[in-house]
Amino acid sequence: MQRHGTTDTTLVIARILRRDKTPAERKLWRALREFNAGGDVHFRQQAPIGHFIADFCEHTRKLIIEVDGGQHNEPENVRRDAERTAWLHSRGYRVIRFSNIDVFKNLESVIIAIQIATGILPAASSIVDASVPSPLAGEGQGGGEGAARDRTTGDRAS
């Protein structure tokens, strides 16, 4: 047995998976390497944990990131993912999942979610600035230069 309860076989498979990343994993890994450059957060790719291999893991924070293709929506894979996640949770890991589509079409939001999960950014509820007042009744309802217009008449919408 090796570190994190892995076997030699799991380590060999992890090395192969590192070399043969999916396009979505490759794209996210490039972004995660910027986290690693900062020094405080260090993600590992295709990280063996027990007999599982996490796509990405930050061991200090016990955070696992999974990038899932469409095959993860098939019933048997949904069941396996749930069992795997339960096993990882039982060892203190948090697991967050993103679809390949999320990584390709909305990478910025994926990165923000990861920054929140790692503590680099505060959660949204803790960044509300109470010193900025809410708009008064009637404010922010149009009428200015950028006000909405009725498509048929060109008049400003009320």
Description:
By secondary structure, the chain is of the alpha+beta class. The protein has one domain (3-126): 3-Layer(aba) Sandwich (Endonuclease, Chain A), CATH 3.40.960.10. The chain is 39% helix and 16% strand. Strands 1-2-3-4 form a 4-stranded mixed β-sheet, sandwiched between helices. It is globular and about 35 Å long.
State the CATH topology. Answer: Endonuclease, Chain A
CATH architectural type: 3-Layer(aba) Sandwich
Major sheet characteristics: 4 strands, mixed
Strand-and-helix sequence, N→C? HHEEEHEHH
Q: Characteristics of this structure?
A:
5 helices, disordered C terminus, 158 residues, single chain, globular
Brief summary of the model shown:
With 158 residues, the chain is an alpha+beta fold.
Chart the SSEs and their pairings.
Elements (H helix, E strand, L loop, with lengths): L7 H12 L3 H16 L5 E6 L2 E7 L4 E6 L6 H16 L3 E6 H6 L1 H12 L40
Parallel strand pairs: 3-4
Antiparallel strand pairs: 1-2, 2-3
